[in-house]
Amino acid sequence: MPNKYVDFVSDAHFEKCVRHVCKEFENTGQIDDKKLQSNGIDPIKMTFDMIKHGISFDVWKKKEAERQDDKSVNNTIGEFHQMLLGGVSGWTDLGIGDESKLDLQKNDGSVFLELKNKENTVNDDSLRQVRGKLETAANTHTTAMCYWAYVVAKNGKSEDRDWEYKKVNNPRIRRLTGAKIYELITCDEKNLKRVWEKLPLAIKNVCGTNFTISSGDNMIFNDWFNNAFYKPKKSRKKKNQ
Q1: Which of 129, 146, 174, 229 gets the most CB atoms within 10 Å of its CB?
Q2: 8, β-bridge pairs
């Protein structure tokens, strides 16, 4: 009997990964004042926000709580991809506490990945740390390929390309983005889209929601999916000679 969702992991594992994200949504809207402040609040920006937008402190607090909730959910989406791909046969989700401090590895030790959800969530300091971890893995496993992988790239492309860092280029340390991550691990670039297409069914089954995305929205979503992972190259206008 074929799987309900995708063919590279079991239905039970797919639902486990979806449930992990759904649970994070259940935690949203529960940030009290103490927790809100523990995440770091800038009273100067708060003052600008309230005055420029003409909002009360209670309205500002609600918006800030929503912002922090959204940040937590975004982090969990990255964990979703890590958990899902770690369930592929021949691969391991290294989780937290592994000596390498990386996220995914091929079981034969030939490939290691540091996986992020979005490229723009990595600042210069964390980028330096990512590079350091990958260099350590490349030096320890002298024939392994090591990747800084991020699902959503700022340029909207799915690529496997060089990663020159501070004018140093190691051919065994590369960038991997979008559908190319799924191609490397599942051997089929189309599997990222298959995951996205099956998410509504899995979310319904796991979370018990009856909401259905309209056919019109699905058409729009398809364009946005392609724009996120297969953005077309800009055509260059020829200069008049």
Answers
A1: 146
A2: none
Cβ neighbours, 10 Å, residue 192: 22
Distance from C-alpha of 19 to C-alpha of 184, rounded to nearest angstrom: 25
Q: Which residue has the tokens 């975004």?
A: 74
* DSSP letter assigned to residue 211: -
Residue 5's nearest CA partner among 175, 164, 191, 137 is 191
Mean pLDDT of 180-195: 97
Q: What is the number of residues in the chain?
A: 241
Q: Half-sphere exposure of 40 toward its Cβ, with a 13 Å CA cutoff?
A: 0
Quick one: CA dihedral 162, 106, 100, 123, positive or negative? Answer: positive
Residue 87, both tokens: 């369930």
> Which tens digit of pLDDT belongs to each residue from 19-37?
999 998 887 766 677 777 8
**Model pLDDT for residues 100-145, shown as the tens digit of each residue:** 889 999 999 999 999 999 987 778 888 999 999 999 999 999 999 9
pLDDT tens for 132-142 read: 999 999 999 99
- On whether the CB atoms of residues 133 and 102 are closer than 8 A, the answer is yes
